[in-house]
Amino acid sequence: xxxxxxxxxxxxxxxxxxxxxxxxxxxxxxxxxxxxxxxxxxxxxxxxxxxxxxxxxxxxxxxxxxxxxxxxxxxxxxxxxxxxxxxxxxxxxxxxxxxxxxxxxxxxxxxxxxxxxxxxxxxxxxxxxxxxxxxxxxxxxxxxxxxxxxxxxxxxxxxxxxxxxxxxxxxxxxxxxxxxxxxxxxxxxxx
Length: 191
Hints:
By secondary structure, the protein is an all-alpha fold. The chain has eleven helices and two strands; from the N terminus they run H-H-H-H-H-H-H-H-E-H-H-E-H. The protein has a two-stranded parallel ribbon with strand order 1-2.
């Protein structure tokens, strides 16, 4: 069975590739989890983020938005001492800020899912990459998403982070065309 080669031999990366990456997400809590993880990944490897994913889930109350939006300075200081996560003060504070912004979008649109999928016309964009170096780091859609999210007060939402998020949330299918997941997901792209 052919697969993308970026997961290498890392069991966590393989499991993530085989079961999550590129599968369309329509659950707001899962959207937020991917946004947080992709923001923390900035400047680091995805393998490191995956290794700390369970730590993130525990430290950030399983990505429950309403709880995170109310985190105070005492909680920030506890998170900065938590070795189970990536301890970056700017990213921790951005997570709290982004939870507050996320809740505002939910109020306005009924769900974050309804809002975020507009950037791809409410369907998965399917790329036809044959090699890893053909996969883009950004797109016109991630540029637009980044611009709009920043306008709404989000932090750590540059176009590259937005594109990685779009890949994770299945808004774009960047599995290589010879990968078994590419074929699995092509038929499951619409809402």
